[in-house]
Design a protein that fits this description.
This protein is mostly helical. 82% of the residues lie in helices and 0% in strands. The protein folds into 2 domains: 68 residues, Orthogonal Bundle (Arc Repressor Mutant, subunit A), CATH 1.10.10; 43 residues.
Length: 119
């Protein structure tokens, strides 16, 4: 369940703007505000099943966008690459006991890039 929530929120970050307003609001209330399907349904004056269907179609649409565009996967790969480069820099500094200013700046920039989007 937690993996599904993380996946939906990641996809929403990239593709939420491509959903209809109703789909966005249902996703936001259910996943971000942690409302049950029944609570979301009450907010919209529709059935629980209608909210379930709206969310299901929205998630399917976001998965389709990801299949076609691959933005979330690319971002994940970029972070993994940055993490690996950061580890190599740390190892080089540790082995040599020295961090030239340019290397220290590069390491700090990589740390900033890794921290982006983690808020």
């Amino acid at each position: 369940m937690i993996e599904q929530v993380l996946k939906v929120t990641l996809l929403y970050d990239f593709y939420g703007g491509l959903l209809t307003e109703r789909q966005r609001k249902c996703i936001e209330q259910h996943y971000f505000d942690d409302l049950s399907l029944s609570e979301v349904a009450d907010n919209f004056g529709v059935s629980r099943q209608a909210v379930h269907d709206i969310i299901k179609r929205a998630v399917e649409a976001m998965n389709d966008f990801e299949d076609k565009l691959g933005l979330a996967g690319r971002r994940r790969q970029e972070k993994e690459n940055l993490f690996e480069v950061n580890l190599l820099l740390e190892q080089a500094i540790k082995e040599t006991g020295y961090a030239p200013p340019a290397l220290a700046r590069a390491r700090e920039k990589i740390r900033q890039m890794l921290a982006e989007g983690d808020d």
